[in-house]
Write a structure and sequence with these properties.
This protein has helices at residues 10-20, 47-56, 112-116, and strands at residues 73-79, 83-87, 95-97, 101-102, 105-106, 127-129, 136-140, 146-150, 153-154, 176-178. The protein is α+β, with helices and mostly antiparallel strands.
Length: 216
C-alpha cells in the first residue's frame, strides 16, 4: 500500500509519576490485514455474464460510511518524557492493545471497548510523517470499516485523553500502551499502579470501569 505503509517509598514514587505524566494525569482512573479490493470479473463471452458480474461486484468497496471519522494523518515524533509516539492529524496520541494480534493483524476491541478506544479508521491513504510507509497497513474490522495498523498492530485513540498530547491511556488495564512509529509498545512513563479505563459513553451514571462492567 504505497501511501499506507517505568519501589522506592510512596512519596518518591508519586514524585516520579508526576514528573512523567502529562498534565491532568490520574493514575487511578486514568480478519487478516488486507487492502480492500474488488476482484476483477473474468472476461465473459456473453453480455448477460458481464452484466451479472458487474451487478455482483461491490460498489466503491474502499469507501467508508459517510458518518465515520477518518484518521487522515499519522505523525511519528519524540515528545518530552514519553519518547517516541504516533499521533493523528489533530495531535491525539495513538495506542495498541495486547489482546489484538499483529500476525495476522486482528482487532479484538469491539462494542463497549471500541467506545472507549475508538479505532483509527482509514480510507486507505493516510498521510505519513515520521512513520515508514512499509510499517503502515490496514485491517478490516467486524463492522466492515478499515482500521490502520502500524507494524501489524491495530491502533486506537483513548477517550480518557481530554486534550491532544495526553497519554492517560498508558498501561490502562495492563494491556494498552502508547504505540511507537515501528508498531512496538512504548514502555516509558508506566504508572506505579494499573489504571482502570474510563467508562463507555453508553454506560450512563458510571464514572469508571468499576461501575460499567467494562474491564479492558
Amino acid at each position: 500500500m504505497a501511501q499506507m505503509k517505568r519501589t522506592v517509598i510512596v512519596a518518591s514514587a508519586m514524585v516520579a509519576l508526576t514528573a512523567c505524566a502529562p498534565a491532568g494525569y490520574d493514575g487511578a482512573n486514568s480478519s487478516a490485514a488486507e487492502p480492500v479490493a474488488v476482484a476483477a470479473a473474468e472476461p465473459s463471452a456473453s453480455v448477460e455474464a458481464e452484466a451479472s458480474a458487474s451487478a455482483e461486484a461491490p460498489a466503491a468497496a474502499d469507501a467508508p460510511p459517510a458518518n465515520v471519522d477518518l484518521t487522515e494523518k499519522l505523525v511519528g515524533k519524540t515528545v518530552a518524557r514519553m519518547g517516541k509516539v504516533v499521533t493523528d492529524q489533530d495531535g491525539w496520541i495513538l495506542y495498541r492493545f495486547d489482546k489484538d494480534t499483529a500476525d495476522p493483524p486482528s482487532s479484538n476491541c469491539v462494542d463497549k471497548c471500541a467506545e472507549v478506544w475508538p479505532p483509527a479508521l482509514t480510507d486507505g491513504n493516510p498521510q505519513l510523517t515520521g512513520v515508514s510507509d512499509d510499517k503502515v497497513s490496514s485491517v478490516t474490522r467486524q463492522d466492515g470499516t478499515r482500521q490502520i495498523t502500524i507494524g501489524g498492530w491495530p491502533v486506537y485513540r483513548y477517550i480518557g485523553d481530554k486534550k491532544p498530547g495526553q497519554w492517560k491511556g498508558q498501561a490502562v488495564g495492563g494491556t494498552w500502551f502508547v504505540v511507537q512509529p515501528d508498531g512496538k509498545k512504548n514502555l516509558e512513563c508506566l504508572p506505579t499502579s494499573t489504571p482502570k479505563p474510563v467508562a463507555p459513553p453508553s454506560d450512563s451514571g458510571a464514572n469508571d470501569a468499576g461501575g460499567s462492567g467494562y474491564s479492558y
